[in-house]
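Morning!

This is the sequence you dropped in the shared folder:
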Amino acid sequence: MTVRQQWTVVGIVVGVLACGLIAATHLMKDELFPVVIGSQAPDFRVKVLGENRYRTLDDYKGQVVLLNIWATWCEPCQKEIPSLEALYRAYGSKGLKLLAVSVDNAVSEDSIRKFANHYGVTFEILHDPTGAIERTYQTTGYPETFVIGPEGTIRKKWIGADDWSSLGNRALVSQLLGLQTPRPVVDDGDR
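The structure's back. Tokens below.
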């Protein structure tokens, strides 16, 4: 075998290994790059409800973001909405960006808007009927919520409905916004 043939074989082997590595990285990306607390929040591209515009995570760079992935047919999502609204009313004017991304693909945007209006939602409703945000954030159910700090890292990941107006969640949001941590209300009874 000539030197040229040897280098050709080496080149083919390196090429096959590189292709295998690329394929493995693509197939195992969720295991290699999990979306967990402390990881960098992945970018997304979702449609602004009722408009021909899109939002990305870069639109909220340097801000505290609560990203809620939900659907209109999801009962736990429906139960969670009032606490999300309470949190937004308390902290929206102080800098909290609450983004609720509907992943409904069988209903119209008008139906999603009517649904949100029924619950008195004042935070931003976005829409991703393609499910791309679910794949990007590796969601496993609905609702699934991510609290993203101003530096872009995931500070909390919660699967299922939560009481977002609870003291613990308000304390986390307050801390991320650089505000004084709320104190629990103490009932002194009838003194």
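Headline: Residues 76 and 161 are 5 Å apart (CA to CA).

More detail when I'm at my desk.
O.
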